[in-house]
Amino acid sequence: MDNRQRTTKPVPPERTALASDLRSTLKGKPTRSGFNRSLRHEILSFAGDIFKILLVFTLCLLFVLGGFGSGMLLGYVSTAEPLTIGELTKTEEVQTSFVYDSEGNEIAKLIGNENVDRIYVPFSEVRDTYIDEAIISIEDERFYSHSGIDIKRIGSAVLSALANGGTATYGGSTITQQTVKLISGQDEHSTSRKVQEWFSAMSLEQDLSKDQILELYINLAPMGNNYVGIQAAAQNYFGKNAKDLSLAECALLAGLPKSPSYYNPLRESGRRNALRRQRIVLGKMLELGYITDEEYEEALNTELVFKTNSNNTSITINSYFSEYAVQEVINKLSSQRNISTSLAATLVYNRGYRIYTTLEPNVQAVLDEAVMTENLFQTDPSLLVDLPEKPQAGIVVINTQTGAIAGMQGGYGQKTVNLGLNRATDAHRSPGSSMKPLIDYAPALELQLISPAMLYVDEESHLNPNNPDQVWPLNADRSYAGPMTIRQAVARSKNTIAVMVWNDVGGDTALWFLKRMGIDRTSDGAYPAQAIGAFTIGMTPLEMAGAYNTLASKGVYTEPYAYTKVLDAEGNLILEANPQKYRVFTEETAFLMTNMLQDVIYYGTASGNSQVIYNAAGEVIPAAAKTGTTDDNLDKWFCGYTPYYTCAVWYGYDNRLRQTVIPSVDRSNAIRIWFFVMTRIHDDCSGLSFDAPDTVSKYEVCSSGYYATDYCRNTGTTYSDYYVDSSYLRPNENYPCPIHTPTPTPTPEPTDPNDPNNQPG
What we know:
It is built from 25 helices and 18 strands. By secondary structure, the chain is α+β, with helices and mostly antiparallel strands. The longest helix has 27 residues, at about 40-65.
């Protein structure tokens, strides 16, 4: 037990923390910007700030002196969300949380070295350190005497604001109020929010002891560099547990939450700032009698030893999927309980949760193999020697039957860090032509504006409304093929016809359909380049997989999900997946689009690099897909599906150092990766086909687009294609082909038998 003697010996005014703080403000850069404003503007701004401060102060007085008598206060309080602390205050025991795949196998463990950014520590474990006194001294010196809000501190903040042109030099929030913010995640600066914060702080004081509130604060406070709580900060800054912190170290950590980035100990300037604030904390501790003169001097003269960066090979690297699934649980828990994501993460990582995910181990194993197969990413590695970075990929596989994420990979090669960039979920890249089925053709089919056999003319066009004299769009091969069907335009990825169809659909309507498939870009507004994949914000492989799965699922969109349920340590149900699910397209539209996308593989832009997918029994597994390429060859996509799985692949470079054009020999790698994955994950799947609905039939049609006649058949210009039976677009015998008609036989003119010219001989 610590036998330190605490003293209430007064200190000279020049030794107080306030004096040190004032001296520190005489140095450095000005705290106000130097731009000129009119005297009128300054006066109005000052008056407005003073009014707001006085209003808050008045409400505070009404709140304390008049209870809930004020109608305004009652309105504010009635809308305050109750705080949900959950399991944090139920036990001091920190328990390991686990993540499981769809078959119940453990795939991740969330504690200790695997969770260095937030580790829960009971207050009883650090009670014998100076961390509580340091925090109370600098943040809330009357913490043990107030009931959640500190009227004296609020009044002092108001006077400070009056003396400083409407800007207080310090805030009026107590530790309890700050804990409320850390629990709720709300930090909105408004009168209503401040009153609700006061009410919540006073309620929290009724529900918890002071030590319990301190425990929440020390575990939820931001400590810089994504570290949350004093245990994570102690381990990452000093290489020790929080219970072993010295006075000097406690004083430094207590000062970080005010501005974690400004006081960042891992940066040279931040460390200097943190050490200056440490001295203020120590001075305040001395002023309040928490430490003696000797302890104060010793702490000032203590040289802090910061932890040096080193590679810890014992750290377990979690998979991209595990990290994504855990984050989804955190987000859902935060939303469901109306708590901050920080608090939700602390619960998930420290309370023995059991997270059951949708990961299919056989699918993930194939994805793991794919990203470790060099020749899928580098056809000729010698060509990439001088490039600043390696090629990358993001891959997502969704189970078509359920809409669940079966596997994902967020990068090429071995994953070496936790919480790094996941290209499967976080890399927004231009989708190129892989967007055409989603935003052009499927909406047009749904609106019965087109059919697969409808004719459009691929020709030089001027479809840019902002520059009508410009020839736009250009096809990838910079040529035009003349009249062609929609089916041919899809297979050959014609930009001209895609934009024409988009115009027929209407830009806003096209974006509405896209949003219904989980890709919301309505804030951008509609413009024609979207028809061929040009967006302000690109798409992630997860978004593309979810959208294409709508077509694979016969027109029904299911929000991709990564977990099925979450249990606590006692087996109680915490969360259960309930993904959004609704119809976007009719079965007829989904089938017609799927049937055309099959041609992409067998006859279209993917045909040179595609292959037939067989199961282990040699049965064919049908596939439908679409290629995607940006004009500058910075991005390559291949998105498609079978009756069992949907897979989206992005391939390219991160382009963090410079823009890297994909070498010509690697421009089919997205297709190659897709087929590598899809051919292997279907081994145990039985042979199926994309069956046409009963309401869709094949009809014979002439190449002119009209109902085929015998004369069309005689000229060899007929073929069959699918149509919705009830559609007015299907061939109709009432409108036969007007081009192929019988050649009329000339009618002989009548002859006069008395004409000598007509006599025989």
